[in-house]
Write a structure and sequence with these properties.
45% of the residues lie in helices and 21% in strands. It has 210 residues and is an alpha+beta fold. The chain folds into two domains: 30 residues; 179 residues, Glutaredoxin (3-Layer(aba) Sandwich). Strands 1, 2, 3, 4, 5, 6, 7 and 10 form an eight-stranded mixed sheet that branches. Strands 8-9 form a two-stranded antiparallel sheet. α2 runs parallel beside α5. The termini are far apart. This is Cytochrome oxidase Cu insertion factor (SCO1/SenC/PrrC family).
């Protein structure tokens, strides 16, 4: 009896869990596209590629020290959970002149996890504002060119989010101030988009093998 229980736990339960998750992705469909064709941020120096990346996009603004808590929440709840996936990245947009502050932040994050997929791009304040507006959200940057919200950008540079969120209706971004929101909403949505790409990859591989 004990051996049977152990076998169920080790082999059957993971299979059932996988099938449940896979069917859930199929039932819910793809994560909705809220804004198409987000432009490449080529006006920024540093890491500035969106195409072919699954990107968590954020705007840290001019007061990096005040955004450390947001960055740590994002690192612990999202980055550490998904950083092992290929083509996944964090991309933070920052005004020029804050390279030293960003370096210090990255060093602090590095004490908690690997930070090879934490990327930063620097540009003029006007370019930061214009690029944010190109996302087409219902949100605004603060006077310091920051927002606590981060956004999911897919490999085709589409902003993904929710169009039937129980609290906001249309949900463009996720508030990094709220650990509950990262845990209960953003983590689920990142799982969906990663599963979506894995499913597409499996279909492509199956078609090639025929």
């Amino acid at each position: 009896m004990k051996k049977t229980f152990v076998l169920v736990v080790l082999f059957i339960f993971p299979l059932v869990a996988y099938l449940f998750f896979a069917s859930g992705v199929n039932n819910f469909g793809k994560l909705p596209v809220l804004t198409e064709n987000v432009p490449e941020p080529i006006q920024f120096s540093g890491d500035n590629q969106l195409t072919d990346k699954i990107t968590i996009l954020g705007f840290l603004g001019k007061n990096i020290g005040k955004k450390k808590g947001n960055a740590f929440n994002l690192n612990q709840k999202i980055y550490k959970r998904f950083s092992e996936f290929n083509d996944f990245q964090m991309l933070m947009i920052v005004p020029n002149g804050l390279e030293d502050e960003v370096g210090a932040l990255k060093e602090e994050l590095g004490a908690l996890s690997e930070v090879d997929k934490w990327n930063f791009a620097f540009g003029e304040e006007g370019d930061v504002q214009n690029f944010f507006r190109s996302l087409g959200t219902n949100l605004e940057l603060g006077q310091d060119f920051s927002t606590p919200y981060v956004f999911i950008i897919d490999k085709d540079r589409n902003l993904r989010g929710r169009n039937d969120d129980e609290d906001e209706g249309v949900k463009f971004g996720f508030n990094t101030t709220s650990v509950a929101e990262l845990n209960n909403k953003m983590e689920d949505d990142v799982k969906i988009i990663l599963a979506e790409y894995r499913l597409a990859l499996k279909k492509n591989n199956a078609n090639r093998s025929k």
